[in-house]
């Protein structure tokens, strides 16, 4: 069920655009709307790039997954390979 909701949320903007095109077949999107859409795409890609760089581990680091230590769970982390 959650996948269906996620799929519907993903398809909602495309459906809204299709409905807008159907209701206004001769109208074109304004240039300011296209500039804002392009700016949104650039900001999204820049944010994804920044997040990927800030969350990555240094070269030579090995990921240690979460595991049980006694009666509590130790979170996953990176350790140097030495």
Automatic annotation (TrEMBL):
Residues that span the membrane, as ranges: 32-53
Keyword annotations: Membrane, Transmembrane, Transmembrane helix
Record protein name field: Cardiolipin synthase N-terminal domain-containing protein
Natural source organism: Roseomonas alba
């Amino acid at each position: 069920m959650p996948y269906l909701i996620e799929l519907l949320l993903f398809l909602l903007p495309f459906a809204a655009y299709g409905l807008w095109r159907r209701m206004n077949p001769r109208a074109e999107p304004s240039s300011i709307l296209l500039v804002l859409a392009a700016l949104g795409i650039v900001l999204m890609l820049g944010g994804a790039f920044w997040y990927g760089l800030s969350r990555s581990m240094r070269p030579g680091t090995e990921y240690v997954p979460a595991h049980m230590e006694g009666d509590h769970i130790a979170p996953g982390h990176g350790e140097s390979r030495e």
